[in-house]
Design a protein that fits this description.
The protein is an all-alpha fold. Helices cover 71% and strands 0% of the residues. The chain has one domain: Four Helix Bundle (Hemerythrin (Met), subunit A), CATH 1.20.120. Helix 2 runs antiparallel to helix 3 and helix 3 packs antiparallel against helix 4. The longest helix is centred in the N-terminal third of the chain and has 33 residues. The N terminus and C terminus are likely disordered. Bound molecules: fe (ii) ion (2 copies).
Length: 180
């Protein structure tokens, strides 16, 4: 994956777009495996939730604050406020999915709604927020290094998200709950 701080590290926007593409592929994989085994679906849903959680954290901890500073007097500030609110909804959807058993009749619908919400959020970031950041003078190389380093920490095998993502399964597979 991405290195810590070296010249090969993509700039912030390329790194975030790469994450967006990766999770989009995972959603497509889930769609293709909807008739597959329960374990396969559960493992894919876990990878989606882990990838989205790590991505949201690096945006909230590093990218959004940097963008807020750079765009403070611009309408970009409103975009970041909206993005932050959308992250709350994303986290709610993720939490519901993570606590739902596969036997929940609304499990697939939960993944689908999450997918649609992520698509909407990503579209706003890529079409509205990122272009403003690009023209704002933000040091996207330095922020890219910070994002890569934090992402690396959060996905270490010792960390919860990293371990589960690597194993393709969740510690809470047996937890009960409903998507609805
Ligand atoms: Fe975001
Ligand atoms: Fe994003």
């Amino acid at each position: 994956m991405f290195g810590l701080t070296n010249s090969d590290t993509p700039n912030a926007i390329d790194l975030l777009k790469h994450d967006h593409d990766d999770v989009d592929k995972l959603f497509a994989e889930y769609e293709d495996s909807k008739d597959g085994s329960g374990q396969q679906k559960k493992a894919l849903a876990a990878r989606i939730c882990d990838a989205l959680t790590v991505h949201a954290r690096i945006e909230e901890e590093i990218f959004y604050p940097a963008a807020r500073r750079a765009l403070d007097k611009d309408e970009g500030k409103d975009l970041i406020d909206e993005a932050a609110v959308e992250h709350q909804t994303l986290k709610d959807l993720i939490a519901r999915l993570e606590s739902a058993p596969l036997s929940d009749p609304l499990y697939d619908a939960g993944v689908k709604v999450l997918s649609e919400y992520v698509k909407h959020h990503v579209k706003e970031e890529e079409n509205e927020l990122f272009p403003k950041c690009k023209s704002s003078g933000m040091d996207l190389e330095a922020i890219g290094n910070e994002l890569a380093a934090r992402k690396s920490e959060l996905t270490q095998p010792g960390s919860g998200r990293g371990r589960r993502a690597a194993n393709g399964q969740r510690a809470g597979d047996a937890r009960e709950g409903r998507v609805s």
